[in-house]
Amino acid sequence: MIDLPSDVTHAFDWGSTGDPLKDAVLADTAQRIKAVDLAIAEQDPLHEAYRFYSEGTVAAGSERYIQEFVDHEPVRRASPASTTPM
After folding, report:
1. Distance of CA 25 to CAs 14, 58, 85, Å?
2. In this structure, how many other beta carbons lie within 10 angstroms of the beta carbon of residue 6?
3. Which superkingdom (predicted)?
4. Is there a domain that residue 3 lies in?
């Protein structure tokens, strides 16, 4: 089970299908989504959690996706007092 920071929440609205295989796929899908979000929250593009649920090109794509969050610098807005009138 993936434990996320308290400010990260998910709502997976799919219920049980009655088919054990399909239900297992849905459960793993939820865990994979949480694992990617955990890697983002921990700023770790090589986090073992998401790599447990994916490999190959899917894992490589997840790594690039997570790296974008790691590399992202917040937009710095000028304060109203520091803006120069035209």
Report:
1. 12, 16, 58
2. 6
3. Bacteria
4. no
In one-letter notation, the amino acid at residue 5 is: P
The reply to whether 9 falls in a domain is no
User: 67: domain range?
Assistant: 44-74
- Give me the helix-helix angle, 56-71 and 20-41, nearest 10°: 30
- Is 48 within a domain? yes
**Cα separation of 77 and 71, whole Å?**
18
**Token output for 21:** 């295989």
**14: in domain:** no
pLDDT tens for the chain, 86 residues long, are 888 889 888 999 888 999 999 999 999 999 999 999 999 999 999 999 999 999 999 999 999 999 999 998 766 666 655 555 55
